[in-house]
Design goal:
CATH topology: Rossmann fold
Structural class: alpha/beta
Strand order of the largest sheet: 2-3-1-4-9
Helix content: 40-55%
CATH class: Alpha Beta
CATH architecture: 3-Layer(aba) Sandwich
CATH superfamily: P-loop containing nucleotide triphosphate hydrolases
Bound molecules: adenosine monophosphate
Order of helices and strands: EHEHHHEHEHEEEEHEH
Shape: globular
Radius of gyration: 17 Å
């Protein structure tokens, strides 16, 4: 295990990259940096950055590259190891990241592969707590608000998990993130992992790929307990 490991987790919206990135960060002792979570926090705080990005988030459109690149550079500047969740998403972001890093660069980019029809179903049932950010699965696709068992916050649909915004986000994934994946692959940095199955099944696949590609021993990584 290395606390200096630098990972990128990519995948369609709803592919589970948030959940898996958190698990990886915990297991590898590195910092989880999610641009989506960061922007949502800024919107909730109504900060200057939040006001700049809120319309993009609500529509499901990408925040302009220069703004995102700035935010990520600031967030990662003092960190040795990290897992970037939701960044980069465009060629310009990928190039800026590789250019900004020293020789150690990125260790591995992992794409969680989940078919489009599956992620549409997952997104329509995804619910998020506005207090602690916990993600849950609704039993029905309605707009009722529940109280969070963990923190008492409001659990509801994300503003960008509407049919229109989901469509826009998935289209921009293919159009803008697609070429980035091809580029990362050409650099020998990309591993594609099947994102179907339970969170623990997917996590075991991720650990195996990381162990294989980074010559780490799986035993050195805390495996999760299932159930
Ligand atoms: P996520 O939670 O990763 O689905 O991100 C939520 C929203 O934040 C996206 O739909 C974008 O509006 C914005 N966002 C997050 N990461 C990026 C990025 N790397 N580039 C542009 N916009 C982003």
């Amino acid at each position: 295990m290395s606390e200096q490991t630098r990972l990128l987790v990519l995948g369609r919206q709803g592919s589970g990259k948030g959940t898996q990135s958190m698990k990886l960060a915990e297991a590898l002792g590195i910092t989880h940096v999610s641009t989506g979570d960061l922007f949502r926090r800024e919107v909730a705080r109504n900060s200057a950055l939040g006001r700049k990005v809120s319309t993009y988030l609500d529509k499901g459109a990408l925040v302009p590259d220069d703004l995102v690149i700035d935010v990520v550079m600031n967030q990662t500047a003092d960190l040795a190891g990290w897992v970037l969740d939701g960044f980069p998403r465009t060629m310009a972001q990928g190039q800026a990241l590789v250019d900004a890093l020293d020789d150690s660069g990125v260790d591995l980019a992992i794409e969680l592969d989940v078919p489009v029809h599956q992620v549409v179903g997952r997104l329509s049932l995804r619910r998020v707590c506005d207090g602690c950010g916990a993600i849950s699965v609704a039993v029905a696709d309605d707009d009722s608000i529940q109280l969070c068992n963990a923190c008492g916050g409001h659990v509801g649909r994300r503003p960008d998990d509407t049919v229109e915004a989901i469509e826009l986000r998935l289209t921009s994934y293919d159009r803008l993130t697609g070429p980035l994946l091809i580029w990362l692959d050409s650099l020998g940095l990309l591993a594609t992992v099947d994102g179907m199955g339970t969170a623990d099944e997917v996590f075991q696949r991720l650990l195996a790929v990381i162990a294989e590609r980074l010559v780490l021993s799986v035993e050195t990584v805390d495996a999760p307990t299932s159930g």
